[in-house]
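ok, trying the design again with the full structure, not the truncated one.
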């Protein structure tokens, strides 16, 4: 059973109130007493009850993080970045999944109504007016990880999706001589997917090369199925640009199933540079997004809002991308 502040107080021969002051970093305790209490707390492996503390202080050191899902490597890197910054400032992170946006509104309302969090980070590609209204009326500090520049009410972390897609497509055309390229998109209403598709099509039009577009949903399975359709075309392209690395991995799966060689028979590129991309066979050429950095910057913006009582003007922080050239094209 976990130690309590009552047990620490008894061991240190001080009042429960004094132990509470030390735990809450109240300066009205002598250095000697503070050191003694912290030493005993460590020995007893004391862990504060975060929820009880929040209720007692009528303020919370919890922040919420809602992601489309939490199993994908992309999202675990965001969690890592958010948690590192939050923990460094004595905040804890509660993570929830919107199950690919199916329960997004319910998750947001639950976080707001339970009153446990001081602020919320939300990765949501397409916020509707109803959800924007719910967030606005809550007066809760909110940071969005979202590339939609039409949303002005909240702080926002935006990835330069357009330029990243334009760069990798231009590389395939100018450096690799591709005259025909297929693109596997993310979900049609996803803001990141829309910008990546536009970057791709603009580059193809600029350099006057043939292109086709196949719809995906950012999943490995979608990449596999889209690649199957593309490679069954009467004339298949020289390269496939998948709108994220997971779909690119799905392309690898299908290409290997039908015994083609990457990049000799088909070139494949992705977007995100998830950790596993460098260890694929062959290693994947992709557009690097410093995903952990996205989480860190989102947490920093949110904590700044919380500590200023939401009095800081909303801002947008753009995260640049970088072309990572490997052996898949």
């Amino acid at each position: 059973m976990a130690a309590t502040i009552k047990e620490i107080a008894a061991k240190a021969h001080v009042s429960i109130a004094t132990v509470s002051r030390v735990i809450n970093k109240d300066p009205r305790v002598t250095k000697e007493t503070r050191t003694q209490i912290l030493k005993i707390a460590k020995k007893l492996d004391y862990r504060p009850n975060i929820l009880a503390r929040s209720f007692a202080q009528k303020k919370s050191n919890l922040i919420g993080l809602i992601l489309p899902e939490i199993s994908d490597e992309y999202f675990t890197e965001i969690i890592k970045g958010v948690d590192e910054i939050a923990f460094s400032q004595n905040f804890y992170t509660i993570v929830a999944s919107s199950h690919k946006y199916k329960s997004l509104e319910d998750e947001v309302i639950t976080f707001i109504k339970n009153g446990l969090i001081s602020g919320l980070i939300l990765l949501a590609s397409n916020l509707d007016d109803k959800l924007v209204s719910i967030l606005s009326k809550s007066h809760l500090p909110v940071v969005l990880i979202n590339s939609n520049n039409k949303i002005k009410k909240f702080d926002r972390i935006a990835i330069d999706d357009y330029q990243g897609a334009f760069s990798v497509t231009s590389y395939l055309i100018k450096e690799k001589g591709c005259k025909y390229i297929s693109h596997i998109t993310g979900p049609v209403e996803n803001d990141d997917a829309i910008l990546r598709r536009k970057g791709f099509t603009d580059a193809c039009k600029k350099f006057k090369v043939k292109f086709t577009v196949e719809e995906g949903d950012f999943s490995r399975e979608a990449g596999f199925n889209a690649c199957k359709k593309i490679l069954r075309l009467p004339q298949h392209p020289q390269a496939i640009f998948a709108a994220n690395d997971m779909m690119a991995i799905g392309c690898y799966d299908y290409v290997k199933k039908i015994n083609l060689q990457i990049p000799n028979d088909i070139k494949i590129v992705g977007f995100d540079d998830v950790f596993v991309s460098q260890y694929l066979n062959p290693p994947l050429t992709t557009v690097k997004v410093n995903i952990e950095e996205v989480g860190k910057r989102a947490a920093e913006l949110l904590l700044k809002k919380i500590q200023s009582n939401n009095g800081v003007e909303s801002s947008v922080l753009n995260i640049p991308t970088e072309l990572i050239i490997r052996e898949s094209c």
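Keeping the full-length input from now on. The chain has three domains: 5-48, 60-159+291-318, 161-288.
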